[in-house]
């Protein structure tokens, strides 16, 4: 009986610690606009779209990204156009991820660039579903025009909305 009580208390403490860690990571994701603007590289302007290789009928790419990570629709990631690969530090298997500031419709978000691809002409970035929902909550637009993408210097950005 005593062992079960201790196990239950231990489980509750672990659950609480995990929820605090998750909450802290969400809070850290909000950055100062001044810091992000100061760290931004040259702007690339074009259209953004979204993709999810797990959707029925999806014909491009696959579940693994160029960095070796598996596609995850719940994190803040994106694929850039293959011709922009060098501007984002290479984006190759096993290398440190690069980050970008994406601006559109009056909003800003930092995304981890973990994939590249031959995107549809006119498009410069494919946002994963979480990042696209930030700009288009219903995912009805499909494409967002006049998107500004800036490579961020440094390797330790926390992806998420910029406040």
UniProtKB/TrEMBL annotation:
Annotated signal peptide: 1-25
InterPro entries, per database record: RlpA-like_DPBB, RlpA-like_sf
Record carries keyword Lipoprotein: yes
Residue span(s) of domain RlpA-like protein double-psi beta-barrel: 46-136
CDD domains: DPBB_RlpA-like (cd22268)
Keywords: Lipoprotein, Signal
Protein's name according to its UniProt entry: Rare lipoprotein A
Species for this entry: Bradyrhizobium algeriense
């Amino acid at each position: 009986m005593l062992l079960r009580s201790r196990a239950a208390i231990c489980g509750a403490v672990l659950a609480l610690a995990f929820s605090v860690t998750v909450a802290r990571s969400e809070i850290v994701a909000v950055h100062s606009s001044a810091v992000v603007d100061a760290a931004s590289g040259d702007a690339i302007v074009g259209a953004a779209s979204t993709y999810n290789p797990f959707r029925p009928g999806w014909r491009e790419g696959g579940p693994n990204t160029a960095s070796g990570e598996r596609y995850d629709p719940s994190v803040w990631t994106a694929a850039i156009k293959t011709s922009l690969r060098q501007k984002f530090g290479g984006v190759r298997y096993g290398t440190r991820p690069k980050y970008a500031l994406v601006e559109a419709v009056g909003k800003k978000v930092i995304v981890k660039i973990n994939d590249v691809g031959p995107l549809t002409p006119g498009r410069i970035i494919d946002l994963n579903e979480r990042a696209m929902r930030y700009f288009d909550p219903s995912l009805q637009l499909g494409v967002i025009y006049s998107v500004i993408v800036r490579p961020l210097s440094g390797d330790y950005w926390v992806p998420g909305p910029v406040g």
